[in-house]
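Running this now, will post back.
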Amino acid sequence: MSRARTARRIAAGAAYGGGGLGLVGVATVGLVLAEVQFAKRTVGTGLPDPPRADGLYGSEFGGPELSPGPLRMGMLGDSTAAGLGVRRARQTPGALLASGLAAVAERPVELRNVALSGAMSDDLDRQVGLLLDGGGPVPDVCVIMIGANDVTRRMPLTQSVRLLTAAVRRLRLAGSEVVVGTCPDLGTIEPVYQPLRWMARRVSRQLAAAQTIGVVAQGGRTISMGDLLGPEFAANPREMFGPDSYHPSAEGYATAAMAVLPTLCAALGLWPESDRLDVSRDEDMLPVAKAASAAAGEAGTEVTGARGAWALLKHRRRRRVPAEELPEPATAGPAGAPGPAPLQESA
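Update: finished.
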């Protein structure tokens, strides 16, 4: 059975009830997840709570009292969204994305991060409530990163997708654009060995593809987190992963943020030619399930709905400019958090 077909089955099960794990048997999945849990215990976390990064970024573009006021951004999800493993607020993915969005929009961005370390998709309803039920303005855009804990704690994939879809629907009905970073590739966890590493990768990609189908159906966009993200993590695990060998380092979060930022800007109409296909980058319009399957296997790939059962498969990912090419960073956000490095087209 193809990955696209498996993703359709999981997404259909999320929408209508029922459904299973597709190609991966229950006994095999239990073995995989036991190994992943062992890996997590082996590396241990022992990490302090992530720093709070809420606040105004890009204040050089004007204060909150100036019209049209700041863009409002919400950050939801698990420890990856919260920024577990870094010491400074400016190193968290929320701060990096808010700074980057402010630079592109030339407008301040007010960030509120309600992500929770250890969260599964069943916590998203609470997190959405924190953003929407306080009587304040609805976020212009929300970024969700979720899924890894659903896999390692054996939440049925159909339930995981159903909970995420409900959260996206609620945010979209409130008027917020939504970008979802899909389930990362758990096959990159170093203490997980073959053949279980291959199986962990397979389950993760099944969930990521099914998440994409559900999110796109609600008018959201997804960006594949894959192996967080791409060859840098595979080639430089000591640099890209933090001290627990499970969560990204500051460099790893920066790499992930640079992959999400173009899609975040495109969701708000701030990216030039945001939804035009670029055949030179192997972009295409595909049936949603095929686009979801392709994205799950290639980190940094965006899927956004086009028309009917079709979706755009976009490769918006940019590389960071080497440090020697960078100008002095502008200050932005709480405690003078620097903005992210400028972006260039990938080679």
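The radius of gyration is 19 Å. More later if anyone needs it.
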